[in-house]
Amino acid sequence: MTLLGPYGDKVGDVRWRPPLRIRRRRADRMSMPAALDRYYTREEVLALPDDGMRYELVHGELLVSPSPRFRHQAAVLEVATALRQYVRRHQLGVVAISPADLSFGRNDLILQPDVFVISDLSARGLEWGHVRKLSLVVEVLSPSTSRYDRFTKRRLYQELGVPVYWIIDPDEQRAEVWTPEATAPVYESERLVWQPHGAAEALVIELSALF
User: Fold this and answer.
1) What is the pTM of this model?
2) How many domains does the chain divide into?
3) Within a domain: 168
4) How far apart are the first and last CA of the chain?
5) Is the Cβ–Cβ distance between 71 and 99 less than 8 Å?
6) Chain CA centroid to CA 98, Å
7) Which residue, 8, 157, 172, 187, shows the most beta carbons closer than 10 Å to its own?
8) How many Å apart are CA 50 and CA 3, to the nearest integer?
């Protein structure tokens, strides 16, 4: 069966584009679904052109975000570096950053977490589509992603059973900590602490170092 785009074009055709596109790469422009009246599949999203935008898929809804600000990337780098050193020292898995195209084996999902820990030492040999279990997910908010990170993706990470989800807010200079059963976040304004099963000591990240 041939998959068609909303204008009747074949999805594989390089001329095909989603009907709603954020063209100006402004950090203060809100991300939006590429189409409000249809569902996308993983294959369709992976066939989109590499144009510098971030494409994610949640229950068939296509989320499009512009390139992040420098302060966002600086915070991501600090968190990823601290996590990588800690995870390696305690042999807790593998730390990775986006782009990643995580789907958890589903055709209606593509996730691009800013930073995440795969709780499997053999993950270095896996394709993104084969990853099934994350022990920590970190999203650093941007104006274009805050709504999705706090609500759409947060509920999905809870549904997937991710043990700990950190939402770091550079504007408010604080972080939200979510667990699968939580109905409200725990707010942290000084530091983030993570000690997963198997670690003899906790990782402590001072939030002042991120901002």
Assistant:
1) 0.77
2) 1
3) yes
4) 50
5) no
6) 7
7) 157
8) 20
62 in a domain, yes or no?
A: no
Q: What percent of the chain has pLDDT over 70?
A: 80
- Residue type present at position 97: I
Q: Which domain holds residue 168?
A: 70-209
Q: Is position 53 within any domain?
A: no
8 A C-beta contact, residue 160 and residue 135: no
Intervals of the chain under pLDDT 70: 1-37, 121-124
Q: What percent of the chain has pLDDT over 90?
A: 57
- The CATH number of the domain holding residue 115 is 3.90.1570.10
* pLDDT averaged over every residue in the chain: 83
Task: Kindly give, in sequence order, each residue whose CB lies less than 8 Å from that of residue 156, ignoring residues fewer than 6 positions away.
Answer: 58, 59, 109, 111
Residue 137 forms part of a structural domain = yes
